[in-house]
């Protein structure tokens, strides 16, 4: 099959984090913040979900921001403007719930910042006060700072090693904010599972409405396989159609963590195979 | 040429056996199990037909394939004519010859069935369809002059494909929208290669392309585009919803979210659509079943397909757990027979009530109950009831749930003026397949609930006829 989806722009935002803009007019027209696409790079490739960071209906493009962590994401990150991929399908999942909540704290950890970005912007446009906390392991991994500063009321940056912003975890400024008596009406947290769990634990006792975007393993993204099921409030939900956003206080993070590790050995082998192929090509 | 044998002589000929890969070998590869009849076998089998004056087999076929006529053409060695005869009523003979539950349809109705075993109609259908394909002489039907009307078909399973084939011949411009990246619906993502080689499906799709049907993959109608946009903005005069009943059902028992518990849809999609069985070539992972204990819960075709796939992926113990007895299994007879030959163990009158995990969240065992058959329920099948104190633990590494599917909801939920009934299935007129929304028709599993390839195909053709009437008269 010919690769139909053209990449019109591509550049790195951080080491291993790349922004790709792809022509997909129907998806651009229907996209709402919080939704994602499923892509396949080539005919032997895997289907993986990626959030739509931005869409431009007039130009007919969608933007994705990809962190290269395994075989497929690393392949994507080697693509440049002018290349094309075989499949992009979407927009999938429910749109984020965007209303006037009051004061919203949007927390993005690592590439989760890219996933949170369109919703944060939407929350601002809906008239909320938006405070954004961007976390990264180090300075280089803090992404989209300028783009977020352009609309957010306040931006706080944390790094694990203190190389930029405040040293510590994203929950630290959240805790101090709440301790200082700031009234927080809504929290959106997107990032690694331990981070989302930690945020949920902080806000639970204050009964602050908190939403997380879950990242289970997906195949079709249309509700057809059930592989993406997560446990929320004791019930199975399909993240691709019922989510990906869920009430953080109801999510069973343990099950999610375990299910996400299901193919770890096979994935490692795939990367190894892939690296051999790459080295083979260089020789 | 008439059959020279007298009816009494014909009845003396035993039903011919389908040559197949031997069970030990085939249970380790994904190549087709049935190898197909030779010319010799086909002629012998065809000569068993009594050419009844009012053939029951034709009545037994949901789409009325002219069985008697095509079997006579086989006897005359006119294979291409035989294929053309089938195609008058069934555009996917190479598929249905392989997957129809013949024992409940044409063959079940055959007058010699009870006493001597029916004529192998399915085998013969497959034989002529394969002959036609391999001859490269599939006569593409004539296409009527362009009407200038556009029809959108949502879903590329047997219902959508058959409608597309008919509508293009009537001169309409036809676009098939498919959510997945490949065409064929269940034929491509569900039914495995060893039962229905994917080349056969892609060959049919290629023929349709040559006839002018446009296929657009990666379009989830309801998400990527809506039915109203197709009608009002993209210039389609009619829409056929043929989205199937592809949503997996789970048991709702504790432990179903453990690692190692799959829906049959996920397992089969990974294996078939994503080709996970070709590790190293394709990227999608599947649980490494080698030397593991795998069980499928359910007794239909889907269950058989899943467990036989697991066996081929190297499972040490491959079980079917079914809560009724073998007689109630909805799977095709041939699939159950093949499964048993391949070493699949049937745990009949058993029912899992819980999945038990280890501390890392991986499936370790299923807690099962033994069942017995009580009085018949409203469907006429005897209802299984559990036996007190029969609980036991079955060690398992993988459990695959194949207890049915439900309607694909995305079109209905975004097109509220399409009326649905219980379970989200679309309400459509039995004859015209019109829905409550003008210009929109529906056919296949999305109307009937999970059924069969031939019924979906028949419905697709009915819808095509109604769509053609609607487009030519403008009357809703
Ligand atoms: C709704 C949703 C939105 C996402 N948005 C983004 C995004 O905007 N940017 C981004 O960089 N990442 C995003 N992800 C995560 C991204 O899909 C995974 O990083 C990617 O699939 C990894 O594939 P791989 O082959 O590179 O890595 P692998 O080595 O195959 O896998 C690494 C890990 O990624 C996860 N993963 C693997 N396969 C899949 C799959 N098919 N579906 C989901 N997760 C999988 C597993 O946890 C696995 O352990 C999102 C995930 C979800 C569910
Ligand atoms: C594993 C398995 C084995 C089976 N074995 C047999 C057998 O041996 N014999 C037999 O007769 N029957 C068998 N069946 C049943 C048979 O396959 C179905 O009855 C038949 O395929 C139904 O056809 P359909 O066209 O209605 O739907 P499907 O074949 O389900 O096709 C529907 C298509 O629509 C697509 N779709 C859904 N929603 C959307 C959307 N919103 N936008 C775009 N596209 C969409 C789906 O991706 C799919 O490709 C089996 C089924 C399964 C699952
Ligand atoms: S990804 Fe298959 S159901 Fe969600």
The number of domains of chain B is: 3
Strand order of the largest sheet of chain A: 6-1-2-5-4-3-7
Q: Per DSSP, what share of the residues of chain A sits in E-state strands of 2 or more residues?
A: 25-35%
CATH architecture call of the largest domain in chain B: 3-Layer(bba) Sandwich
Q: Into which percentage range does the β-strand content of chain B fall?
A: 15-25%
Report the uncertain regions of chain B. none
Point out poorly predicted stretches of chain A: none
CATH fold-level topology of the largest domain in chain A: Rossmann fold
Mean pLDDT of chain A: 91
Integer count of domains of chain A: 2
Question: Reading side by side through the largest sheet of chain B, how are the strands ordered?
Answer: 3-2-1-4-16
N- to C-terminal distance of chain A: 29 Å
Q: Helix- and strand-based class of chain A?
A: alpha/beta
> Using CB atoms under 8 Å apart, which protein chain pair has the greatest interface?
A-B, 42 and 41 residues
- The percent of residues in helical segments of chain A reads 25-40%
Rg of Cα set of chain A = 18 Å
Task: Identify the CATH class of the largest domain in chain B.
Answer: Alpha Beta
Query: Largest sheet of chain A, described in full?
Result: 7 strands, antiparallel
Question: In one word, what is the shape of chain B?
Answer: globular
Give the overall shape of chain A. globular
